[in-house]
UniProtKB/TrEMBL annotation:
Gene that this polypeptide is encoded by: argD
Compartments, as annotated in UniProt: Cytoplasm
Annotated positions binding N(2)-acetyl-L-ornithine: 140, 279
Protein name as annotated: Acetylornithine aminotransferase
Pathway assigned to this chain's UniProt record: Amino-acid biosynthesis; L-arginine biosynthesis; N(2)-acetyl-L-ornithine from L-glutamate: step 4/4
Keywords: Amino-acid biosynthesis, Aminotransferase, Arginine biosynthesis, Cytoplasm, Pyridoxal phosphate, Transferase
GO MF annotations, alphabetized: transaminase activity
Annotated organism of origin: Parachitinimonas caeni
Length: 402
């Protein structure tokens, strides 16, 4: 096949996605070009993945250098990039031990299995309850959709794994009523991403930590979306000053190369003894070499302070647009994970903002039907922010009809 086009998707692919009508072929920094040569400013970041934009020279160098050396050896051997990346993660977080995966869902799958194993080993077979929150998202494996708080993703696949309870997010009374000595873990996203870009309340998070301590339950933070600099700190938990027992990370960790990781402490990690859990590709040299280069750049005051400054620039720009067009009821989020909640007149139309935005040369995301989400590169140039917002305003003017 020499020439492919968007219509081939419908002919060849399982119809589980509905991709846009245009096909991107190249990216550089925060700009992307499609098959027709049209240019887009990227405020979507591959859904919070391309933390350093497209084709960052240091990531291209890390990948190509490793590609000429060693791609894969299996986990019956360790490898240098994996050990270096693990050291970077341990040195810069609460964690003492690391387990590598290929995706966010797998990092959460490892987290939930480890929490169950830890609890059963220490307290017996009854301590298996996992408490999660409505609207949360933890991935698409059967266990992770079942823990996730959106029934539309978990219904219709037959029996679900048991022992999972869903409660209202940010409601400490509900958790205090439910949690017991049979609870093995409480899991939450410090900023609910897919659920609408909703940061957790600090007082709630403090209360969750105390209730977990009281009932010997592990606190798991799913930082697949909020992590790796997105909040303005390396991990969002650092913004709150409250540490988890287990943390999952992925998305921006590889900057576009697939990798995930589960971080934890030594006393918990030891319950994943030899043979208890595994992955063929997890921790492969290519992914780890790229992720090491990602952390070298993102885990610096320069990048992280830049995220906070760019947050202000985006929020000011969105509020100015809103003053002229009145489309949002609220702009929320942290760092470069920003949600613009649509006002009543535009309820459930987030997808239109994506489609019309792309027509005007700017890529944005939705987070549910009612929130326009921005998750751009953490090093997006200010000029690209301004130009992208100008394009977005033209799209909004079209939607509003003026
Ligand atoms: C994207 C996401 C996941 C799933 O990650 P995959 O790499 O798609 O498996 C899990 N949790 C959160 C919070 C996410 O945003």
């Amino acid at each position: 096949m020499t020439q492919v086009q968007r219509s081939d998707f419908d002919r060849l692919m399982v119809p589980s996605y509905a991709p846009a009508e245009w096909v991107p072929v190249r990216g550089e920094g925060s700009r992307v070009w499609d098959q027709a040569g049209k240019e887009y400013i990227d405020f979507a970041g591959g859904i919070a993945v391309n933390g350093l934009g497209h084709a960052h020279p240091k990531l291209v160098a890390a990948l190509t250098e490793q590609a000429g050396k060693l791609w894969h050896v299996s986990n019956s051997l360790t490898n240098e990039p994996a050990l270096k990346l693990a050291a970077q993660l341990v040195e810069s977080t609460f964690a003492e031990r690391v387990f590598f995966t290929n995706s966010g869902a797998e990092a959460n799958e490892a987290a939930f299995k480890l929490a169950r194993r830890w609890a059963i080993d220490n307290y017996g077979a009854d301590k298996v309850e996992i408490i999660s929150f409505n609207n949360s998202f933890h991935g698409r494996t059967l266990f992770t959709v079942s823990v996730g708080g959106q029934a539309k993703y978990s219904d219709g696949f037959g029996p679900k794994p048991g022992g999972i309870t869903h409660l209202e997010f940010n409601n400490l009374d509900a958790l205090a009523r439910q949690i017991s000595d049979r609870t093995c873990a409480v899991v939450l996203e410090p900023i609910q991403g897919e659920g609408g870009v909703l940061p957790v309340d600090k007082a709630f998070l403090q209360g969750v930590r105390e209730l977990c301590n009281k009932h010997n339950a592990l606190l798991i933070f799913d930082e697949v979306q909020s992590g790796v600099g997105r909040s303005g700190s390396l991990y969002a938990y650092m913004e709150y000053g409250i540490e988890p027992d287990i943390l999952s990370t992925a998305k921006a960790l590889g900057g576009g190369f697939p990798i995930g990781a589960m971080l934890t402490t030594e006393r918990i990690a030891k319950h994943f003894a030899v043979g208890v859990h595994g992955s063929t590709y997890g921790g492969n040299p290519l992914a780890c070499a790229v992720a090491g280069a990602v952390l070298d750049i993102i885990n610096t005051p320069e990048t992280l302070n830049g995220v906070k400054a760019k947050h202000e620039r985006f929020v000011k720009g969105l509020e100015a647009i809103n003053a002229r067009h009145g489309v949002f009821s609220l702009v929320r989020g942290m760092g470069l994970l920003i949600g613009a909640v649509l006002g009543n007149d535009f309820k459930d139309r987030a997808k239109d903002f994506m489609t019309v935005g792309a027509r005007h040369g700017v890529m944005v995301l939705q987070a549910g039907p009612n929130v326009v989400r921005l998750a751009p590169s953490l090093i997006i140039p200010d000029a690209d922010i301004d130009e992208g917002l100008a394009r977005f305003e033209r799209a909004i003017a079209e939607i509003v009809g003026k």
